[in-house]
Amino acid sequence: MSDELNDLYQEIILDHHRRPRNRGELPVPPATVGLGYNPLCGDELNVYIQKDGDRITDIKFSGQGCAISQASASLMTQRVKGKTVAEAHAEFADVKALLTGESDLPIAVEERLGDIIALKGVRKFVARVKCATLAWHALDSALAGQGKVSTE
Question: How many other C-beta atoms can be found within 10 angstroms of the C-beta atom of residue 100?
Fold first, then answer.
């Protein structure tokens, strides 16, 4: 990856960390909440979703953690708001492949991920992959109505 792309990706992550989108809480019920915890570093995230049928109509997150976990949560909420549950699960699968894959995703998938591609560099640091996927695991938990999930 070129230095220019690295700089751009780093700026996207820092921007979402400094000015997170969709930070807050939704009333439970009608919203459901997924609680994510990374015991390795202590990151904790709550992801609140509200659905109309099978579509995510609102999503917020709260909690504390490193810049990667907070930026990933912000990016995730922007990405899945308005999508169906199946589309949100597909997004999670693409993000997991991006962060854990040994080879690059097809260009079409990377382009579809938009700003989330900024997290791609995290896969070089195995311990940080859990930080980047924490919000996505909490989303998955909220969608399934399972409550708390751990990255361990």
Answer: 13
C-beta neighbour count of 53 within 10 angstroms: 7
* Helix axes 126-144 and 85-100, enclosed angle (nearest 10): 170
Q: CA-CA distance, 103 to 100, in Å (whole number)?
A: 9
Quote the percentage of the chain above a pLDDT of 90: 70
Rg (C-alpha) for the chain, rounded Å, is 14
With CA atoms as reference, report the closest residue to 68 among 115, 6, 133: 133
Q: Which of 110, 109, 47 is nearest to 73 (CA)?
A: 47
Ramachandran sector of residue 149 (left: φ over 0; alpha: ψ -120 to 50; beta: rest): beta
Q: Which helix (H) or strand (E) holds 128?
A: helix 126-144
**pLDDT(152) > 70:** no
Q: What is the pTM of this model?
A: 0.90
